[in-house]
């Protein structure tokens, strides 16, 4: 490589956050030993799906000697075969011949629209209304929980290759969910006394500075919102930039904000996203966790089960034990959602059950707060409890952890066993002509049925 091909290694101490974007991609993946043709294919994938990482991830978390097979490398860097080969060949050819950017972006957009960018009825079913007008940047899927997407928080310190919110990051305005109208959010919450929990999500809200984060959290402490019992923040920052809570200039101010939530009599919960045990190893992570817990906040951990990154029981067993030891609460093992490169990362449900069971069976009761494998699907969170034989038939046993229709929560039901199924839409009901969440065929077809059809 020439001097222009080398990505500088930045000292680990005494520096601020430095992001790497698609313009750095070719130089970075050259460190993984990829050929020119392989790098071109990766660049083609990155025209469709978002890419962003930072120097902490690149220099502290990735084992470059093991790349491109290293799990953290695969967690943040696009893979040449993540998308249909024909699409990648077509876009790679455009890049090779220097096609106009408009032509390349049009091709990329065509691929994106075939990837089910908004699964589980996010736009069709989850957007609430106020005064007969939709409330952008807010989702209200379950009666007691409202999701808020702050406009300034719709990016991350680094992007996961499997992210189900990838559509937030690709520069497609029609696919983005975001709001900066906090007054409207508060007015909506005041008129919905059934809401007890607000989840601030993204992107990653912790990409926002303390002053901006405060603009979204402080109004939730208003006595008129006494019915709001908890504030949740969905974040990957403990994995991708733990300095946010330790050495960043506004780290103390952020933690003081967390303390004010607790002082107001509400629970603050960080919904921390950890995909692999290595993300827990740097000392900055332990320091960040200790400081967050000192505010009275709870940290709950969750991640999807992802092929080639964490698809074995030992990885999850190790993660859950580390979470507990560090003072965090294991919460969810998710199934990779039906969006983006699901076909590349998905693990069959039957295998997911085995991995969860093998990991769950070898941890203490304090780790068994974790639930899964769980599918965040259109009707709700569907948990696969296991594989059983009932009346001589091999079936999946399932129940709903959460549901649009609260009467369905906890109600067991069965699906025919299918070793290749990776999502709810692949399953067929057993011992019934429909699942509990499906409308009676005698009724008019509803949006749920349409949503449960395979994408594309």
Written overview of the protein:
The chain has three domains: 3-113, no CATH class; 117-296, Aldolase class I (TIM Barrel, Alpha-Beta Barrel), CATH 3.20.20.70; 332-456, no CATH class. Strand 3 (129-130) and strand 4 form a beta hairpin. By secondary structure, the protein is α/β, with parallel strands linked by helices. The chain contains 15 helices and 15 strands. The longest helix has 13 residues, at 36-48. The protein starts with 18 loop residues before the first strand and ends with a helix. The chain has helices spanning 25-30, 36-48, 55-61, 71-76, 85-96, 101-113, 182-190, 210-217, 237-240, 251-263, 283-294, 313-325, 342-345, 349-360, 447-452, and strands at 19-20, 53-54, 129-130, 133-134, 138-142, 145-148, 197-200, 230-235, 267-273, 298-305, 329-335, 371-376, 380-390, 393-403, 413-416. An eleven-stranded mixed sheet has the order 5-6-7-8-9-10-11-12-13-14-15. It has a two-stranded antiparallel ribbon with strand order 1-2. Helices cover 30% and strands 18% of the residues.
């Amino acid at each position: 490589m020439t001097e222009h091909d080398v990505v500088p290694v930045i000292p680990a101490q005494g520096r601020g956050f430095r992001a790497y974007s698609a313009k750095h991609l070719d130089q970075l993946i050259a460190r993984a030993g990829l050929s020119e043709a392989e790098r071109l294919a990766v660049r083609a994938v990155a025209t469709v799906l978002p890419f962003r990482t930072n120097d902490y991830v690149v220099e502290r978390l990735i084992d470059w000697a093991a790349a491109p097979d290293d799990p953290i490398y695969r967690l943040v860097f696009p893979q040449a075969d993540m998308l249909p080969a024909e699409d990648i060949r077509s876009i790679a050819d455009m890049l090779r011949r220097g096609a106009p950017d408009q032509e390349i972006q049009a091709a990329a957009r065509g691929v994106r629209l075939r990837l089910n960018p908004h699964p589980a009825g996010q736009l069709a079913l989850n957007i609430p209304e106020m005064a007969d007008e939709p409330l952008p940047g807010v989702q209200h899927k379950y009666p007691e929980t409202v999701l808020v997407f702050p406009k300034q928080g719709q990016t991350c310190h680094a992007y996961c290759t499997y992210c189900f919110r990838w559509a937030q990051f690709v520069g497609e305005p029609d696919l983005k969910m975001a709001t900066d109208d906090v007054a409207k959010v508060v007015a909506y919450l005041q008129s919905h006394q059934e809401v007890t929990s607000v989840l601030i999500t993204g992107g990653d809200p912790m990409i926002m500075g303390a002053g901006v984060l405060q603009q979204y959290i402080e109004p939730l402490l208003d006595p008129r919102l006494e019915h709001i019992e908890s504030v949740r923040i969905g974040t990957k920052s403990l994995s991708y930039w733990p300095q946010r809570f330790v050495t960043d200039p506004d780290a103390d101010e952020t933690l003081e904000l967390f303390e004010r939530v607790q002082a107001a009599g509400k629970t603050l919960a960080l919904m921390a996203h950890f995909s692999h045990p290595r993300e827990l190893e740097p000392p900055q992570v332990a320091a960040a966790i200790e400081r967050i817990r000192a505010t009275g906040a709870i940290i709950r951990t969750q991640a999807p089960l992802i092929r080639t990154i964490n698809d074995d029981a030992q990885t999850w067993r190790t993660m859950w034990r580390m979470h507990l030891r560090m003072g965090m609460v294991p919460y969810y093992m998710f199934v990779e959602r039906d969006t983006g490169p699901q076909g590349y990362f998905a693990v069959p449900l039957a295998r997911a059950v085995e991995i969860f069971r093998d990991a769950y069976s070898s941890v203490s009761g304090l780790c068994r707060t974790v639930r899964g494998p769980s599918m965040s699907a259109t009707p709700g969170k569907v948990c696969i409890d296991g594989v059983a034989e009932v009346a001589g038939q091999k079936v999946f046993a399932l129940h709903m952890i959460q549901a649009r229709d609260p009467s369905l929560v906890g109600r067991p039901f069965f699906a025919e066993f299918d070793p290749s199924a990776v999502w709810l839409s692949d399953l067929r009901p057993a011992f019934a002509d429909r699942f509990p969440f499906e409308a009676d065929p005698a009724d008019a077809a509803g949006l749920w049925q349409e949503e449960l059809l395979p994408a594309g």
